Amino acid sequence: MDLALWIGAGLLAAVALTGGVTKTFVPREKLAAAPGGGWTAEIEPGLIKALGVLELLAALGLVLPAALGVAPVLVPVTAVCWVLLMIGAMITHGRLGEFRFVALNVVYLALAAFIAWGRFGPESFTA
């Protein structure tokens, strides 16, 4: 179970890192033209970059606290925050009719919920 949680956290961290780098460093025009990026056309660039920075922090928060042994409770807290982010992403993509991205967000949400459950519960770092 511990290994599955580490793998899940690593996969989700890779997703968060990719999304964070993209939203932080790619111009809004390019994001809006990309599949699933239509929502960025109507959003202020600062908000897009802020979401990108939050995703970068999530990538760090899913792995580093446990790997370094410094405040490992941040791993499940970050996973819960990712669940909330994915709910917002599902609403946004759903409003635009981008249902395959909603499905992808559901997968990410489920993985984050698994990590939160596992790290708050049976495989807690404080146990």
Summarize the structure.
The chain is mostly helical. The chain contains 6 helices and no strands.
What is the strand and helix layout of this fold?
Blueprint: H1 2-25, H2 28-33, H3 45-61, H4 64-68, H5 74-95, H6 99-120
Helix pairs in contact: 1-3, 1-6, 5-6
The profile of the biggest β sheet is:
none
Mean pLDDT: 95
Low-confidence stretches: none
Supply the helix-strand structural class.
mainly alpha
H/E element sequence? HHHHHH
The percent range for helix content is over 70%
Please identify the oligomeric state.
single chain
The dominant shape is globular
Number of helices: 6
Strand-residue proportion: under 5%
Radius of gyration, in Å, reads 15 Å
For the record, give the distance between the C-alpha atoms at the N and C termini, rounded to a whole number: 14 Å
Number of domains: 1
Number of strands: 0
InterPro entries: DoxX (IPR032808)
Keywords: Membrane, Transmembrane, Transmembrane helix
Pfam families: DoxX_2
Transmembrane segments: 56-89, 101-120
